[in-house]
Design brief:
Blueprint (H helix, E strand, L loop, with lengths): L1 H6 L2 H10 L6 E6 L2 E5 H11 L4 E5 L2 E9 L3 H10 L4 E6 L12 E7 L18 E6 L4 E7 L4 E7 L1 H11 L3 E5 L3 H7 L6 E4 L6 H12 L13 H16 L12 E2 L7 E2 L1 H6 L13 H5 L5 H12 L5 H16 L1 H13 L3 H10 L4 H21 L5 H8 L5 H10 L20 H11 L1 H16 L5 E5 L3 E7 L11 E5 L3 E5 L1 H32 L3 H27 L5 E3 L4 E6 L2 H6 L9 E5 L6 E5 L6 H17 L7 E5 L3 E5 L12 H15 L4 E6 L7 H17 L5 E6 L14 E10 L4 E9 L7 H7 L4 H14 L5 H17 L7 H12 L7 H22 L1
Parallel strand pairs: 1-5, 7-10, 9-12, 10-11, 13-23, 18-22, 21-25, 21-26, 23-24, 24-25
Antiparallel strand pairs: 1-2, 2-4, 3-4, 5-6, 7-8, 8-9, 14-15, 15-17, 16-17, 19-20, 19-22, 26-27
Helix pairs in contact: 7-8, 11-21, 12-21, 13-15, 13-21, 14-15, 14-21, 15-16, 15-17, 18-20, 26-27, 27-28
Length: about 850
């Protein structure tokens, strides 16, 4: 070790000392105008960033080196973080000119996938949540923080509930105790980017102390989370992690909110995935969010995502949203003006978060002011409108007059992205700054006067004053006049045709100019820093304004969606009946080719007479679409949107369960049938009287008789359950149609098809009554299956339809197979018997390709001759 330390250069010794404090991070080490990486960090950086990997001499040893210019940090940093790296940014903490030893350096920020304020790392319309998970004895605590907006949430739930919150929030990084690493991976098979903290961080006392210290309160009762012990521990771990990553300016995190499953419609992860709310399973598909998102601002887009993940189940707030959407839709001119103003606004939530962190730029500060000014006409238009909900939102918008006036008076409208890269402070704000600028900018006039004076005094007509980086300002005299140069001028450089001199006056002028420029930069930095600190008093009002504008943006988006797609306002009731007239699937309708219209369907469900609809029909007929559109219409209604239907009267739904389509987890060691049964079990164990249940092809992952038995048992359980949940049950098992005659609240429906001579036309209309066959063979034919396969399938089907027991099924299949094999040879026609005999007598092993073609041609000629003779 001693010999190694002797070899280390001072720079590498400093680097290694800092690196040991951040072993899990990729360290960007500022050296002059570059950020350098060394060793294994350099190898990672070179691969991720596609930059050159080279070597540095470290006291005789070679150390891997890769770097990039410091001004390119915003280009390269996002690539590193998106590749899953935690990046420690180590900057020079003093001016190299002011020290004779090695420059003092230190980590100024640690950027991770879940902790970033950089626009280059954030998605405008999606939160960037950092999460923490803590397993207690009985419950799980989960917490979420978006440092870029200040949203701080916690929940205490079962493992299933925690799974739901993690899926809905989509954290970019999850903090887990080291001693619960295996338990986390076992409980949450979905791959999250995780970071493991020491176990002692997840202690209740430490967490409470951390949270109350941040919020400057004596307890957490005021936030309504006092009893959420496991959630508090998770939330405390998040704040600890922020301190560890050098994020301590957190004034914008002003509250912590409890997430409660009692407040929102329950949807498990299967339902969210099956309904494709946020992403389509098909890579080329479209999610519901993409179809309904008509927001104009980033904060509106994030709020819409949250509304979709957490639909309301209280009647009054749902009705208030519908009433606001109806008003906006009816006043389309005002709607267009409002949306135009919203489009002009910046991301107020993230801008004020940067103010809190002291990372806002002059340009962003002006953008903040302009966004607040764009809000003023919106507030004026809505504060006295007929919609009470919109008037209340207008009342929550704070004009922040003093803030806007101060920024307007202090900053240039075209302020630069960084102090020193242009003029930041407006003229007239600081007399000292104006004077220094006058001195710095009047230099040309001063030099022109000096040139004229010295030329007259010396009699030299061609004097020239210029400057360079070596000598600064100088006077240049051509050789033909150098004998006239005054003695007090000091010669500094000899050229071929001229000489250059400096004078005391020039040196004094240069010193004054350079001093003025340095003082201008220093003063601008000082004044802007003071402004940023002063602005922090407005964090609360700006956040409240941003929240109101985000809600308004969502409601305007709903109004635009309704007007463009002929959506109607649903009648919401506190009952349990669901009635939809000419309902449509919002996503499928959106993707139809131009000129093609979606075929709508009526649907009615209640708990008294039509609790379960047993829907049969062939593949491709639209059964799954009807199931999904029913759930999506209920969801849209309960987030406050109008719905794709001619009319809809909807009782509140509190839980939506789906088992739609295959969601095979073979990659995780689970079969399709096991996944299907897990999902079905979750439904049966958690249903309620207001639940909406969608079951598509339950039991198809096992044998036919097992499948029918399981499907029947599940349907009977749902029918006999005291809560009588409303259920749509799509199935291929026509035997289940028998249930309608045995159970009073089960009704048979089918998706209509029309049989033509040799094909099937799908009408996609839901109608009463069961379907007696699936038309699967017709679908196979439509898909281009070879005719021989289609005919054989038809023959087997006829045998199977005569078989009802397992033994008969086996016998029927064998008989069908034998019938198909013998049919070609049981022929009465002498010519066909001749052809049969010739084929049977052929020795295929000795037949050349040419001979085979000739034999085939001979058979073809015999058949053609017979055909001509018979005609």
């Amino acid at each position: 070790m001693a010999s190694k330390s002797k070899k280390e250069t001072p720079l590498m010794k400093q680097y290694n000392g800092i690196k040991t404090r951040y072993p899990d991070a990729l360290l960007l080490f500022r050296v002059g105008d570059f950020y350098e990486t060394f060793g294994s960090d350099a190898e990672k950086a070179a691969e991720i960033l596609d930059i050159v990997l080279t070597n540095r001499n470290n006291g005789g040893d070679k150390t891997a080196l890769a770097g990039f210019p410091h001004h390119a940090l915003n280009t390269y940093l996002p690539k590193l973080v998106k590749a899953g790296q935690r990046v420690a940014i180590c900057d020079q903490l003093e001016d190299p000119k002011q020290t004779k030893t090695i420059v003092k350096r230190g980590v100024t920020e640690l950027v991770t996938p879940g902790v970033s304020l950089s626009d280059d790392l954030l998605q405008a319309k999606a939160n960037n949540f950092l999460a923490a998970v803590h397993f207690s004895q009985r419950r799980m605590g989960v917490a979420f923080l978006d440092i870029s907006t200040g949203e701080f949430l916690l929940a205490e739930a079962s493992s299933e509930g925690a799974d739901k919150w993690l899926q809905n929030m989509g954290p970019k990084e999850v903090l887990v105790p080291k001693n619960q690493r295996a338990l986390f991976r076992e409980t949450f098979p979905e791959r999250y980017h995780t970071f493991y903290l020491d176990d002692w961080v997840f202690q209740e006392d430490y967490a409470k102390e951390t949270l109350t210290g941040h919020f400057k309160t004596t307890s957490l009762k005021g936030f309504g989370v006092e009893n959420q012990k496991a959630g508090i521990i998770a939330a405390g771990a998040i704040l600890h992690y922020l301190a560890e990553t050098q994020h301590r300016q957190l004034a914008h995190i002003r509250a912590i909110k409890r997430l409660s499953t009692e407040d929102y419609v329950w949807m498990d992860r299967f339902t969210t995935e099956n309904l494709e709310l946020f992403r389509s399973r098909n890579g080329q598909g479209v999610s519901l969010l993409e179809v309904i998102d008509k927001t104009r601002s980033p904060m509106g887009g994030r709020m819409l995502r949250r509304w979709l993940a957490l639909p309301l189940k209280q009647l009054e707030p749902i009705r208030r949203r519908h009433e606001a959407v109806a008003f906006l839709k009816a006043n389309d001119k005002d709607l267009s003006k409002t949306q135009e103003q919203l489009r002009r606004m910046g991301d107020l939530e993230r801008l004020i978060a940067k103010v809190a962190a002291g990372k806002v730029s002059p340009r962003e500060t002006v953008h903040l002011k302009n966004s607040l000014e764009a809000m003023l006409p919106v507030k004026g238009a809505l504060q006295d409108c007929e919609s009470q909900a919109l008037a209340e939102l207008a009342g929550e918008m704070d004009p922040c007059d003093a803030l806007r006036d101060r920024i307007k008076a202090m900053l240039m409208e075209e302020a630069p992205a960084q102090v020193g890269k242009g003029t930041t402070i407006a003229p007239g704000f600081s007399p000292e700054l104006d004077e220094l600028r006058g001195l710095a900018h009047s230099g040309k006039d001063y030099l022109d006067q000096m040139l004229e004076r010295e030329s007259a005094r010396t009699g030299i007509p061609s004097l020239k004053i210029a400057s360079n980086n070596v000598f600064g300002y100088y006077i240049e005299v051509r050789n033909t006049h150098k004998d006239k140069v005054p003695g007090e001028w000091i010669r500094k450089q000899t050229l071929v045709n001229a000489e250059r001199y400096i004078t005391e006056e020039l040196k004094e002028y240069e010193s004054r100019i350079l001093g003025a420029e340095e003082r201008i930069l220093e003063l601008e930095q000082q004044l802007f820093a003071q402004l940023v600190v002063w602005m922090q008093e407005y964090i609360g009002p700006v956040q409240e304004t941003a929240a109101a504008l985000a809600q308004l943006d969502c409601l305007c988006g709903f109004a635009t969606l309704a007007a463009a797609n002929n959506y109607v306002q649903p009648a919401m009731t506190d009952g349990t009946d669901l009635s939809m007239t000419k309902g449509r699937h919002p996503v499928i309708e959106h993707q139809l080719p131009a000129g093609e219209s979606y075929i709508p369907n009526d649907l009615w469900l209640d708990r008294e007479s039509q609790q379960i609809l047993m829907i049969t029909g062939p593949n491709m007929s639209g059964k799954s679409a009807i199931l999904r559109q029913t759930a999506l219409i209920c969801l849209l209604a309960q987030i406050g949107s109008f719905v794709p239907a001619e009319s809809a009267t909807l009782g509140l739904v509190d839980k939506i369960f789906t088992r739609v389509g295959a969601s095979d987890n073979i990659s995780l060691g689970e079969s399709t049938f096991m996944v299907e049964m897990n999902e079905a079990a979750s439904i049966l164990n958690n249903l309620s009287s207001r639940s909406l249940i969608l079951l598509d092809e339950i039991g198809r992952g096992t044998s036919t008789y097992d499948g029918i038995s399981i499907a029947w048992a599940i349907a009977e359980y749902l029918h006999e359950h005291p809560d009588r949940p409303k259920t749509l049950f799509a199935t291929h098992y026509h035997e289940l149609n028998e249930m309608a005659s045995r159970f009073p609240r089960i009704r048979n429906y089918n998706v209509a098809v029309k049989e033509l001579k040799d094909k099937v036309l799908f009408l996609r209309t839901l109608q009463a009554g069961g379907s007696h066959h699936s038309f699967g063979i017709h679908v196979a034919k439509m898909a281009g299956m070879p005719g021989q396969v289609v005919r054989k399938a038809q023959k087997i089907l006829e045998k199977l339809e005569q078989s009802h027991s397992a033994d008969q099924l086996t016998e029927g299949l064998q008989q069908a197979q034998n019938d198909m094999q013998l049919s070609f040879f049981q022929l009465d026609d002498p010519l066909l018997e001749q052809i049969r005999d010739e084929i049977l007598d052929l020795n295929i092993d000795q037949l050349t390709p040419v001979e085979a073609l000739m034999k085939l041609n001979e058979i073809k000629r015999l058949l053609a001759a017979k055909k001509r003779a018979s005609s």
